Each structure stands twice: as C-alpha cells, then as structure tokens.
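#structure-requests
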Amino acid sequence: MLEIHDLLNKLEVELKRTIIERQLLNPVMIGIRTGGVWVAEQMYQRLNINEPLGLLDISFYRDDFSQIGVNPNVKPSQLPPQIEGRDIILIDDVFYTGRTIRAALNEIFDYGRPNQVILAVLIARDGRQIPLCPDCVGATITLNAGQRIKLIGPEPLVIQLQTLDSAA
C-alpha cells in the first residue's frame, strides 16, 4: 500500500533535483485546491520556499463547468501579484486525465506568462486524456476499472483507494 510519508519524501527529493537542474531561483509554489494545497503545504515547508504559498481554485476553469455547475465550496484563488516571468512549481495530489492541470494552467496564464512551470504530483495514475505529464512524482500507479485514488486530509493526510459502485 502507498504510505503518505514515503510519497512525500520521494516527491521532496524529486523537487529538489528538478529545482537544481532547471535552475529555479526564488520560485513561486502554487497548490491546486484541495488536495494539491495539502501536498503543497508539506512541500513548501520542506523546501523553505521564500514566496507566500499560492492557492488555486480552478472551479471556473474546468472544461465540464457548464455541465456540473458551480462547486458549492468555491474559494478564491490566492496568487502572488507578479506571475509574469516567474518560475512556478504547481502542485496537485493526483494526476489522472490532465484536465485539472489544463484548467490550472489556463488560470495561471490569466495572471501572467510565467518563465516556466514545474508540475509536481503526489500520485500519477493511468488514464491520461490530454498530452500533459508531471515533472516530479511521488508514485506512479495503475488502477483497475472502477477504482480511484483519493487524498483525504488535511490532518492526517491519508491515501484512500476507492472502488466505485458499478450499480450507481
């Protein structure tokens, strides 16, 4: 089973390596609500990022917004005033189809054009639908049909494997 502590440690090592390789100076870290924010809070402390942690709610940028409507728990995004030309570390909990990341990038680019965006996720799973992939990953998994993985938190952070009811 996936242990949260092990995944966070591996993601931290991957991020440190990538920050050095890509020569990121004073990066901005942004977590995607909600699970991505929980992971970002952990990485933010571990990596001693100087800039305030950015929080991103992509509800209005989702490609299924017209079908599912407004999420009742929408919270405002909190991004630094200066995105233009900055190095960004974008954090999410689970990378699946790529649609969440596409929406997050759309919102970030509405604030300005960053120099580069590093995508870090706690878990990458099969099922990609958009040609995006993470730069840093805590674990890569393959799930059976009818299964999904979810991060529960924030305290304690727990990884939960769920089986979807096919009768629903």
